[in-house]
Amino acid sequence: MSAENRTGIATFILLGLSEDSDLQPLLFGLFLYMYVVCITGNLLIIAAILSDPHLHTPMYFFLSNLSLTDICFTSTTVPKMLANLQTHDRTISYEGCLAQMFFFMIFAGLDDLLLTVMAYDRFVAICHPLHYTVIMNLRLCGLLLLGCWLVCLLYSFLQSLLMLRVAFCGDVEIPHFFCELAQLLKLACNDTLANNIVQYFVTGLLGVIPLIGILYSYTKIISSILGIASARGKYKAFSTCSSHLAIISLFYGAGLGVYLTSGTARPSRKGSVASVMYTVVAPMLNPFIYSLRNRDMKGALQKLFCRAAGAQ
Question: What are 301-311's pLDDT values in tens digits?
């Protein structure tokens, strides 16, 4: 593949969710609303956790980091989509596309790994309650968070470097609302074997292995809950996990839908529609799931609102 072919692509075209011009204002309004709700809700979760000393525990430490990750995750794709819908310009520069892909892989991986770490935290809290504070100490929590960041940064750097050798020829149209790695590789002109090998390997590392860890943790958790004698004790133990289970189901359910729809040889918009669930809807719903089903979180939010009203 000549250097001319590699550097000739200055821009990509993001086809988005629909080419129907009548739907563009509706899509803009809908995604703007979801983005604002997502940012506001996750910021409130972070503010409530930081302001309430009772929530300075490992569980809420990871939850605040999950909320921050969700803000960054959504912000890698939705603002560009909104700009394209508003200006009717679907182009994105080659550099902008690679940058979007780089940050998307980081925060998507972080979402996945943080959910796994939170499952481990619940496993220790319910299965080893007497040793919880000793096991889940500040040092371990910091190391777990650091490990999540290092793994995601390493993969994103590696895949981005491999993308620099991928060539694109002619008009490159991406049937998506953001630059997704799998869609870009399908549009390449040259051999992408190395990219695909890394992608499949990391899919197992960041997808299958964490899911196995989550399933193992909750198998042990359910077994421990069933061993609790009182019904009130069972309800209290399960209530601490229900929010996390709901988020895991939403995230992995949407991710599975994307994986199944992206397996076709030719790119299609089905994957982009499924991607909306885990790139926009899941981050938007996380604050509601945790605040509506968590008494401590509701109390912290009420105190936060009261302090804000009192300051006025």
Answer: 888 888 877 66
Burial of 224 (0-12, 13-18, 19+ CB in 10 A): middle
Cα–Cα nearest to 242, from 197, 297, 191: 297
Question: How many Cβ atoms sit within 10 Å of the Cβ of residue 167?
Answer: 18
CA–CA separation, 305 and 100 (whole Å): 35
Sheet holding 11-14, edge to edge: 91-93, 11-14, 173-174
CB 198 within 8 A of CB 162: yes
Structural domains in the chain plus CATH codes:
3-311 (1.20.1070.10)
| Nearest alpha-carbon partner for 293 in 242, 245, 258 | 242
Distance CA 139, CA 132 (A): 13
pLDDT in tens, 23-62: 888 999 999 999 999 999 999 999 999 988 888 999 999 9
d(C-alpha 6, C-alpha 255), whole Å: 31
In the chain, the amino acid numbered 76 is: T
Measure Cα distances from 260 to 53, 242, 268 in Å. Answer: 43, 27, 12
